[in-house]
Amino acid sequence: MIVRPKVRGFFCVTAHPAGCAAHIQEQIDQIRNRGPIQNGPKRALVIGASTGYGLASRITAAFGSGAGTFGVYYDRPPAEDRPATPGWYNTIAFERAATAAGLYARSLNGDAFSDAIKNQAIDLIGRELGPIDLVVYSVASPRRVHPRTGAIHKSVIKPVGQPYTNKTVDTDLGIVSDITIEPATAEEIADTVAVMGGEDWELWMQALDRAGLLAPGATAVAYSYIGPEVTWPIYRNGTIGLAKEDLERAARRIDAMLKAHGPGRALVSINKALVTQASSAIPVVPLYIAVLYKIMKAQGTHEGCIDQIQRLFSTQLYNGRALAQDDGGRVRLDDREMQPEVQRQIREIWPRVATENLDELTDIQGYRAEFLKLFGFGLAGVDYDADVDLNMTS
Length: 394
Ligand code: NAD
Prior knowledge:
alpha/beta; 40% helix; 7-stranded parallel beta sheet; 12 helices; binds nicotinamide-adenine-dinucleotide
């Protein structure tokens, strides 16, 4: 089948197998070119491993430090005439490259929130890999079936307390308009915390601990975002921000649990705003990202997921020194995004952005190119006119 991009709003309903494989190779090459990360992880579990920051973490652990990796992800396989979601192709391409490099790489496709997937993962890790020294929790999901109550929680991206109006962009059509989002109800807030908060991360860590599968001195890390004031009502002070506060609460609990066994640690890393499937679904944020990319590319400080995680590993987690934490105990990889000069320029550009000047004032072209890349489109060296095997059997 010949696969073309079919963008529907903030999603692309097709993904290109060869393009996803090329995207994986590009990230592996980037990590290899930076050289080895000494004293890095040897056995890593990545939950949410197939795209975005989790995938970048898996690639960095494997190709930066030679780690064996176990990945948990939730992607749709291909149907007869419908490509899989990109994470499905990414995972196959990653496993092939890791295996060819002599590295253990095993993945489970299923709901990380469920007891069944946790039990399967723990059984396989116990039999095949051994105690884990790095757990990366990088799940971004719209819903969670609670493993104890069976309740279905759906996360929402809404402000808390009062309505929020700001500019947003339809990244596909290039139309800038105002959007007003009504505040979340108490139930929506609780549901979002249940999905995107820290409870599931804690359940994973407790299950690994019970099974004796946490190596002494293990590191556990989860990712969060803070961002500038323009996005605070919808992010930091909104439903997702409250869920991220809960993630930080979980980090403190997990940290105490790991320290009870020795020198382990758990932390939240605040990462840069980047185009991923998760971030493209948030109102206002894609327009902010398009402005941010323009400024940071001009400055030469732009980084992608793989650069961010390479920097996390090499300058924070595995540099042999104490972590540089902010007063909330978080590691800050958003330091370049939050530089006063970058944010000054954002504040200067933001009120002026409109449909007519979108190309001039923002890097909307770069945004679109990166968005399509998430689905395997626009990669150099890929023949997009060729027939591809949707099952990626060869
Ligand atoms: P993403 O959509 O690219 O990745 C999400 C991953 O979670 C995928 O591998 C997906 O398969 C997996 N997943 C979703 N539901 C699952 C389930 N039920 N079971 C198993 N796996 C499941 O998202 P991302 O942007 O890389 O986000 C990862 C983390 O990074 C999130 O916590 C997010 O808040 C954080 N973060 C993102 C940004 C950003 O700008 N993208 C910035 C800072 C922090």
